[in-house]
Each structure stands twice: as structure tokens, then as C-alpha cells.
Design brief:
It is a single chain. By secondary structure, the chain is mainly β. It has five helices and 74 strands. Strands 42-43-44-45-46-47-48 form a seven-stranded mixed β-sheet, with no helix packed on it. Strands 2, 3, 4, 8, 9 and 12 form a six-stranded mixed β-sheet that branches. Strands 15-16-17-18-19-20 form a six-stranded mixed β-sheet, with no helix packed on it. 9% of the residues are buried.
Length: 1035
């Protein structure tokens, strides 16, 4: 059993407290109780549950600061299973127990129990426990105590975690590499805290000669194409001094350039070098001494290239080849520049091929006018500005040699080879062609293109022919309609290649229409003639004669005809048989037949009058008062009734024996009905068809619960219907070209009044947004926008988003000059929330979260349940102040991987650090934080500058003597105890030893021998004297 945790009872813990609570006191363990069943430990135990007996045959001793080693022996005849044991002190108190659910061991009657265990105490000083005799104690060996130790297996050595087993030379050689030419077969990890003068791994050349470098080699096996799996040299890293001392340091990366079975550096080439000053050379090239990054060959980058500084010539990027090309960004403009030579420090010349303003984005090509050529298409979005300062600007297009030009006075095109030119004169505001102004609305009052023109001279046209007239019309088609010349004084009009009118000069100046055979008359018409308007003849007797031969002569009109005299006394005479048949005289009277005008009656007939189906009745009171046209019972008949007669002043129209229409005395027109509603001027019972326009201030169509429909037709074919449905809804429909197939266009239900279009309409040519082509944003219901919405407005505070709720109008807006957006109050006077471009959020007032449960006030105070209210109240109650405060709980500094420390600063600025010691304890760190000046381990042992100085038993190491105080004191005690008393004689501590003759002693006996006698041969020779010596002691 190793490292078993023992439970301490309350009584056992109290037994270690010294009287008066002045510290702890030592106690001896005198008995150990044995438990034969498992139990649950309780701190208030005073006896061991299931205790079989107590034994005194045991031994124990402290083997670590928190561990005791005990050996329990029971050679009795008892048979039992051991589940636990308890330690009883010399005062009978149960001090502590160990118990487990499974048996620790089982003792037979004929066996002896011998149990060795290491017991760990978590919270007491085990040095206060004293055990009885240790004659049979066989404790485990530690660094402080002799004992039994187990040899570690190879697996345990490889694991490196066991600190109780011993390592043999073989397992150590298998696990650990030697210091001389070690070969490591697995991953290597070096972990330490590096200082300014060391590192986790140091590779150094051997001192003693110049030009020795440090080198690391890398080996690997082939990837494919061979069965050879031996590792080969691939690359190496070397560091040294390049032909000098300080300032010539380099770090090189070399790789094979040829097959290298010989593992030779000669088969490698340098791939990269890092020089003193941080310059990086890629490839095998010489250092130019200035460029930080130098590449011997092409370079490819899968990411971006950033240059935030300029070289000696002012370039961010320099392209060298005889004359350098520079890329430069000075913060205001980006330039493509050229140099007159190639040098790392060469500056730009006067050319400016490309300049880009990084603020506005404006691009200047060939800013100094050296010339720019574009080999392909050039697309310009926006304005193209061709400028030559105050001089004429020119633009050449095509191979003609001509060019477009622009000056301060005009702009146009000029062809030097011919002198051809057109230009727009800015002062005249007109276009000039070869110096002459072009006609326009300003200098030509009636442009020929629109309203014709007036010429002060002749217009001469080609002769033409009947099918190709000399003057024709642009939209005539062939063109074969116009005017053509026939002969001198003769021209004609042709229509679609046929002559329709001819004009002849001569004594009669004739006009032929048709044309007829020319009979010499001034106007000759071949065919019917229809005229409109006023025809006047000259003074004198005038006769209009229609020579019709034996046929009828006609004078007709498909419109109104006025025949008569405009003279105040003029009359109109109608002849028949070359005699007067009728006469119309002034005053509106007419005589028919041979009768004289009586000057009174409008119509006077000299003879009988016959009118078929025409009747006139009397209009007096009581008379029928009927004037009408009667055509039998089935009509058609028309009747005019007097105001006091049966018809009550109406006009009726009948067909088929049925009255079809009437005009009532009130002027109402009834069609298809005789019931006058007395209100509407037009009342129709049935469908109505109108061939012309209908003008009315109001129209009522009432069909009851059925459909009411107005049909709009073209040539008898239905085209549109407007109507009321049988559900009293409005409907608009259209017909296909067949006039039969009807398709709904618009529905408006009377209940909802919502217009429903069958097809999407357009407004002023634009397609409106609706739920079929865009998600609606209803001002009352809202909506969703699935793409970016950009609000743009001019000014520093443009593009504001304003909310309005019952007059409260907060808004979200940006301030362009400050590069921030903000949420402002309803009055737009304060930004309650501001977010800058850098991400800084500024709140004007108090911040709240969780419905006010969390608050941040303007003075920086926080309110929340985490603080139990206001943070300003929480901090003084729970945290100390930098200015000084009192703590009444434990202060713990802890973080994974960190040795927690406290820094203490003296008035002169020097620092001392108090730091937690690994494996327990505390240590003091010096001002430079690079040495531990004093420490105490978790056991209480004190160290100074890494030297163990003071042990927990009070022993003190005296470094000036290189010995422990107990050794010094023991030496002093020994010296004191062996010192002779005053007047004491020295005693021999050895027998007499013969050291030989004087010539062999070199003048002295070895310590601690002293001479006790001499003897000689008696011949007077000094070198022949024999010396005898003894060792003396005090008392």
C-alpha cells in the first residue's frame, strides 16, 4: 500500500493541540485496531467500528513531510479479513482510521500478518506522531532515509513519472542519451525558462580556431521510386561570421543540389541567409548591404505584399533593369515613376506615367505629357477630359490624319490634308462647316424639316416622269407620288405612278383633272367632281351648265347643301321642262306651281298636294291635335300630339303595331317603354348602341340583381365591356381579336373597393412593385428587405433614418467628417449612442440591460445582481483598494502554468517579488527577476541563493564554512570533550614506529607523528641517524 489517505477524527485532531491552545504537542501511537468489515467514516468516531482487536506489534516512522511508514505484525492464530485499521494514541483517543470497501488482505489461522503501508496526512504535521520500537521496521528508501527500494522496469524508466523506484545502468542507458554524440530516436522537447544569456537549446562550435560555424543537419528517407529506406542528408542550418567579427553574423539554410550519398556539404547550395541587421537573402546571392529582403530569382506570392516604408530612393517597390521603375505611395498619391539609372538609392526623374490620388481616387495618366498609347479598346465611364492647359487640345482618331480639337473658342474636327473642318463656335453658339454657319432654328425661322421654308430664289428640281416625279415625298414608299415636268409650260401631278392632274400654259391656261381629252376649256374634269366650300363666279350673267347628254345631270351632296341667293331681294327659282316649277322668295316663303306669292304663307301651292300616309288634324281644344305619319296598323308610325290632347304633348314612334319610343311633354326620351319616370331625360328599356360620342352629366344603368354591361365595339366586333356583376361588383373585360373570347382585366369588389388587375399594370411606362416581384414594405405592417439598403443624403449629416411615433422623432444618422454613426434624440440635439469607425461605442446616458436589471450609469457605476446591487457598494465590501484596505478572507493568486507572485516596490524604485515555489513553499525574487534570493519549501526548509540554509529541525548551513551547524557544533563538542585538562600529560596513541634514517625523511615526519627517539651507528654520520615516532593524544 502506498500513499493511502487517512481520515483524522475530531478527537484525534484535538489531541494534538497543546494546553492553552499555545501550539501543538507530540503524541505517541500505542495501539492499532483492526477492523473486519467496511464502514463509513465519521469525524466524531471515538472507537473503530467492527474492531476485532488491538495490537501493539507495529512500528512506524516519518518518511516525508506528510507521510508516515508503518509496519503491522500479527502472528496470532486468528483468522479474519482486514478492511481497515485505526491508530490509538497514548491517551486512548482514536486518532485516525483507514478503511476501504474491499478487503486489504485475509489472514489464515496458520499465517502471520505483516502489513507495510505509507499513510498520507492531508492537513497535520506528522512529525508530532511518535511510534514505538522500530526494530522490525523496513521503511521505503527516500533521499533522506535508508530503506528498501524497488528496481524500476524499463517501462517505468521510460515513463519517467515514478519517484520511488531505482534506475539500473542498463535501463538508464536505454532511456537516456549520453553527453557525447547522443542519438535520439524519438521527438525531443526542451522546456525551460530562457534568460538573456541562455536558451532551451544551444548549438555551439568548438572554441580554439577561427571560422568555425554552428550547424544543424536534417536527414530523411526517400518518398517513392525506390526500395532504399535509409535516411539521407537533405538540408542543414548553419550560423557563423562571414569574413569578420561583430556585424558579420549570418544564419544560412542549405539544401542538396545534387544526389548526396556522401553526406557532404559540397553537394548542397545555400537557399536562404539571414544577415546581421535582419536582412533576408532568398537564393544564393550576394548581400547588397541595404535591402532587408533580397531574392535571387523569381518570386510567387499566394497572399498580398505590403510595403509600409520607402527605400533610399523613395520607392515602396523598385523594379530594376538599367532604368528603375518605382511604385510609391506617399499617403496622398500613388505613383508609377521612372529613374534615369538603376541603383538601390536612385530617385525618380521628371516623367509621371501614372498618378492616383488615394483620397479622391482620381487617376492621372502621363501627367507630364510624354505621350500615352492604348493598344486596345478604351472604355471611359464618366467624363473624358483631354486638356493641354491653355493651348489647343487635340485627339486623333483613325488613319485620316485629321484630329478633333478643342480651344477656348471652339471645338470640332480638322483635316490638314484637305482643309476640311467643322467646329462649334462657343461665341456664336452654332456649328461652322468650313467657316460657314449651319442652319438652325436660330438663323432659319422655318426649318424645312418641320414647318417648311421660304426661299428668296428659285427651287429647281429634276424633270422627272410619271413613275419617278422630280419632286416627291419622303414617306411615299416608291416614291412615285409628286410633281413632274412634261414640256415647256406643262407639268403634272402623279399619284402612285398615275397622272391625276395637269397644268398647261397658253391663252386659256387650262387645268385638266382626270385628265380628260383637252377641249380648250380652262377647267376640265374627267369624271365625277365633289367640292366643298364657296364657289364664286365673276360679275355678269353666269351659267353653270351640266352637259349630260341624254342622261341625268346630278347636283348632290352627302352632307348639307345650300342653294340660293345672298342678295336681300334675291330669289331661288327651280325649273323643270324649261319652265318655273317652284320659287323661293325672301322671308322664307315658297310657291309651288303656277301661283303668285301672297307675301304671307310660307308654303303656297298652285295645285293639288298629295302626301302618302301624312295627316294633319286640328290643334284646338277638344280636337285630337294629332299631326302624324301613318302607315297602317303595323307602322312604322310617327305621331305628334298637342299639349291638351290625348298624347299630352308627346311625340311617339311605333313599329309593328307597338309603340317603340316617345318624347314626353317634359322632353324625356323613352325607348322601349311608355312609363316615364319623370326624372331622366333618356330612359331605355333594353340595350343601346351608340355610333358616336355620348355626352351626359350623369347616366344610370339599373339592371336589378343581374349584370349591367356597356359594350364597346369596333366594326361590330366586341372590344371592351364595362359592367356591374350579379354580385354588384365592378368588372372591366377585353375581347380577343375574334370579338368573342372575353378576358377579365380589372375587378373591384363593392365591399372591399380593392382593385384587382389580372395582369401587372405599368405607371408612366414603369412596372410598379407588388407582392409578386418584391416583398412589400407596408408602412403599417412593415416588411423584410433581403439585400442591402443604402440611404444617401448630401451634407455632413446626410442619409438620416427618422422614426416618427405620435410626433416623437428619434433618428439614426451618420457624421461623415467624424466617420461615426449615431442614434440621436427626438429633438436631434444629442447623440444618445455613437459608434466610431474604429469600433468605439459612446453612450450619452445610462446603459441598461435585462429590462433595467443591469445598468451602467454616466459616472461609470454598474448595477446588477452579480454585484448584489451597485458595484460601488460591492467593491469596498469585497475587494481591497490600491490605496490601502483590510481583507478578512484568504487572497489567492492562481493561473494555470503561472507561478503566482507579488511585486513589492521600494521608495527608490527597486522591486522585490514574493513568488509561489513549485512543489510548495514561497520564494523571493531579486529586482532583475533573474535569481531566487531566498525561499522556503512546503516542508519548511529554507534556502538562500539556491543553497539549503535552514532545516525544520533548526539545523543551519554555514556556507562560509561549507558545513552544517550540527557538524560544526559536533566538532566543537568533540573538541571540547577531548581537550586535556590544565596540567594533563599527553599520552601515546600508537606504538613506536621506525621511520628510517634522516636522509629519507626530507626533514620531517608525516602528520600526526612526532619524534620520540633517535639512534645512530656511532660513526658520526648524520645521515645514518634513525628516527622513531609515535602519535600522541590528550589524556
Amino acid at each position: 500500500m502506498a500513499g493511502n489517505l487517512i481520515y483524522i477524527t475530531d478527537a484525534g485532531r484535538a489531541a494534538l493541540v497543546a494546553p492553552g491552545n499555545t501550539g501543538t504537542t507530540a503524541r505517541q501511537v500505542t495501539q492499532i485496531g483492526l477492523a473486519t468489515a467496511a464502514f463509513v467514516f465519521k469525524p466524531d468516531m471515538t472507537a473503530l467500528p467492527s474492531e476485532l482487536k488491538r495490537i501493539t506489534t507495529f512500528g512506524g516512522d516519518t518518511v516525508a513531510k506528510d507521510t508516515i511508514h508503518i509496519v503491522i505484525q500479527d502472528d496470532s492464530a486468528d483468522q479474519y479479513k482486514l478492511y481497515g485499521f485505526g491508530l490509538y494514541l497514548d491517551n486512548g483517543v482514536l486518532f485516525g482510521v483507514y478503511v476501504q470497501n474491499d478487503p486489504i488482505l485475509e489472514k489464515a489461522a496458520t499465517s502471520m500478518l505483516l502489513l507495510a503501508a505509507d499513510i498520507v496526512f492531508a492537513s497535520i504535521d506528522v512529525t508530532k506522531l511518535v511510534f514505538g520500537p522500530t526494530s522490525f521496521l523496513n521503511p521505503p528508501a527516500t533521499t533522506e532515509r535508508k530503506g528498501v527500494v524497488e528496481l524500476a522496469t524499463q517501462a517505468e524508466v521510460d515513463d519517467g513519472a515514478d519517484d520511488t523506484r531505482a534506475v539500473t545502468p542498463k535501463t538508464a542507458a536505454t532511456r537516456y542519451a549520453p553527453l557525447v554524440r547522443p542519438q535520439l530516436t524519438g521527438p525531443v522537447s526542451v522546456t525551460s525558462t530562457a534568460t538573456e544569456q541562455d536558451a532551451q537549446l544551444a548549438v555551439a562550435a568548438t572554441s580554439g580556431a577561427l571560422n568555425r560555424a554552428a550547424k544543424i543537419r536534417f536527414h530523411g528517407t526517400f518518398a517513392s521510386g525506390t526500395a532504399d529506406t535509409n535516411a539521407r542528408l537533405i538540408a542543414s542550418i548553419r550560423a557563423g561570421y562571414d569574413g569578420g567579427t561583430w556585424g558579420r553574423e549570418y544564419l544560412d539554410f542549405w539544401i542538396n543540389r545534387a544526389p548526396n550519398d556522401s553526406n557532404s556539404d559540397a553537394n548542397q547550395v545555400r537557399a536562404m541567409r539571414i544577415t546581421h541587421g535582419g536582412r533576408l537573402l532568398v537564393g544564393n546571392r550576394d548581400d547588397d548591404g541595404t535591402s532587408v529582403f533580397q531574392v535571387a530569382g523569381n518570386g510567387t506570392f499566394s497572399g498580398g505584399i505590403t510595403s509600409s516604408g520607402l527605400d533610399a530612393g523613395g520607392a515602396n517597390i523598385r523594379l530594376r533593369n538599367g532604368r528603375d521603375v518605382l511604385l510609391r505611395n506617399d499617403g496622398s498619391n500613388f505613383y508609377l515613376l521612372l529613374t534615369n539609372n538603376s541603383d538601390p538609392g536612385a530617385s525618380w526623374n521628371g516623367f509621371r506615367p501614372l498618378t492616383v490620388n488615394v483620397v479622391t481616387g482620381a487617376v492621372m495618366l502621363d501627367d507630364t505629357g510624354a505621350g500615352t498609347y492604348v493598344g486596345g479598346q478604351l472604355a471611359v465611364k464618366g467624363m473624358l477630359n483631354v486638356s493641354n492647359g491653355p493651348n489647343e487640345a487635340r485627339m486623333l482618331l483613325g488613319p485620316s490624319g485629321g484630329y478633333f480639337f478643342g480651344t477656348a473658342n471652339a471645338a470640332g474636327f480638322y483635316l490638314p490634308s484637305t482643309g476640311a473642318m467643322f467646329a462649334f463656335d462657343f461665341a456664336k453658339k452654332n456649328l461652322l462647316v468650313v467657316g460657314n454657319e449651319v442652319w438652325n432654328a436660330g438663323n432659319l425661322p422655318k426649318p424645312a424639316q418641320t414647318t417648311g421654308f421660304t426661299m428668296s430664289g428659285q427651287i429647281l428640281a429634276a424633270e422627272g416622269s410619271v413613275d419617278k416625279p422630280g419632286i416627291s415625298f419622303v414617306n411615299d414608299g416608291a416614291p412615285d407620288t409628286g410633281f413632274f415636268h412634261i414640256a415647256d409650260g406643262v407639268f403634272a401631278v402623279t399619284n402612285n405612278g398615275r397622272e391625276t392632274m395637269r397644268f398647261l400654259a397658253g391663252e386659256t391656261n387650262r387645268v385638266l383633272i382626270g385628265p380628260p381629252a383637252d377641249d380648250g376649256s380652262m377647267l376640265q374634269v374627267s369624271g365625277n367632281a365633289v367640292t366643298r366650300g364657296l364657289h364664286r363666279f365673276g360679275n355678269g350673267k353666269t351659267t353653270a351648265w351640266a352637259n349630260s347628254g341624254g342622261d341625268w345631270g346630278y347636283f348632290r351632296s352627302n352632307g348639307h347643301v345650300s342653294v340660293g341667293s345672298e342678295g336681300s331681294t334675291g330669289m331661288l327659282q327651280l325649273l323643270a321642262g324649261n319652265a318655273q316649277a317652284a320659287l323661293l322668295v325672301p322671308g322664307g316663303r315658297m310657291t309651288i306651281g303656277r301661283t303668285e306669292d301672297d307675301g304671307v304663307n310660307a308654303a303656297q301651292v298652285g295645285g293639288s298636294v298629295r302626301a302618302l300616309n301624312y295627316f294633319i288634324n286640328g290643334q284646338g281644344v277638344g280636337d285630337s291635335g294629332l299631326i302624324g305619319i301613318y302607315n297602317g296598323a303595323n307602322g312604322p308610325n310617327i305621331g305628334f300630339y298637342g299639349s291638351a290632347t290625348v298624347g299630352a304633348g308627346a311625340v311617339t314612334f311605333s313599329t309593328g303595331g307597338t309603340e317603340r319610343a316617345r318624347i314626353s311633354a317634359a322632353g324625356n326620351l323613352l325607348i322601349g317603354t311608355t312609363a316615364d319616370d319623370g326624372a331622366n331625360k333618356l330612359q331605355i328599356a333594353g340595350a343601346a348602341k351608340l355610333a358616336g360620342a355620348l355626352y351626359s352629366a350623369a347616366a344610370v344603368i339599373d339592371s336589378g340583381a343581374g349584370w349591367s354591361t356597356i359594350y364597346l365595339k369596333n366594326g361590330g366586333k366586341n372590344r371592351w365591356t364595362i359592367g356591374k356583376s350579379d354580385t354588384d361588383d365592378f368588372a372591366l373585360s377585353a375581347f380577343d381579336d375574334d370579338g368573342v373570347t372575353q378576358r377579365r382585366v380589372l375587378d373591384i369588389p363593392r365591399a372591399s373597393q380593392v382593385a384587382s388587375f389580372v395582369k401587372r399594370p405599368t405607371w408612366a411606362g414603369a412596372i410598379p412593385w407588388d407582392s409578386m416581384n418584391v416583398t412589400p414594405l407596408d408602412k403599417n405592417a412593415g416588411g423584410q428587405v433581403n439585400a442591402n439598403v443604402t440611404l444617401y443624403g448630401a451634407g455632413d449629416y446626410g442619409s438620416q433614418l427618422v422614426f416618427n411615433s405620435n410626433g416623437y422623432t428619434p433618428r439614426i444618422q451618420v457624421q461623415a467628417s467624424a466617420a461615426k454613426w449615431m442614434v440621436t434624440n427626438g429633438a436631434n440635439t444629442v447623440a444618445n449612442l455613437t459608434v466610431t469607425e474604429a469600433g468605439t461605442v459612446v453612450a450619452h446616458g445610462e446603459l441598461q440591460a435585462a429590462d433595467g436589471a443591469v445598468r451602467v450609469t454616466t459616472d461609470g457605476n454598474l448595477y446588477g445582481s452579480l454585484w448584489g446591487g451597485w458595484l460601488s457598494n460591492h467593491l469596498p465590501s469585497n475587494y481591497v483598494s490600491r490605496a490601502g484596505s483590510t481583507m478578512w478572507g484568504r487572497l489567492t493568486l492562481a493561473r494555470d502554468g503561472w507561478d503566482a507572485d507579488l511585486g513589492l516596490r521600494a521608495a527608490d524604485g527597486a522591486q522585490t517579488y514574493l513568488r509561489a515555489r513549485r512543489a510548495g513553499g514561497i520564494e523571493l525574487i531579486n529586482n532583475a527577476y533573474n535569481a531566487v534570493t531566498w525561499s522556503v519549501d512546503d516542508w519548511g526548509t529554507m534556502y538562500m541563493r539556491g543553497q539549503q540554509i535552514l532545516n525544520t529541525d533548526g539545523n543551519l548551513f554555514c556556507s562560509y564554512r561549507g558545513a552544517w551547524m550540527n557538524a560544526i557544533l559536533d566538532d566543537l563538542y568533540n573538541r571540547d570533550n577531548t581537550k586535556a585538562n590544565a596540567g594533563a600529560r599527553v599520552q601515546w596513541d600508537s606504538g613506536v614506529n621506525n621511520f628510517g634514517t634522516v636522509d629519507r625523511l626530507n626533514g620531517a615526519l608525516p602528520a600526526p607523528w612526532v619524534v620520540c627517539g633517535l639512534s645512530g651507528p656511532g660513526n658520526g654520520t648524520a645521515n645514518a641517524i634513525t628516527v622513531y615516532g609515535v602519535v600522541l593524544r590528550n589524556q
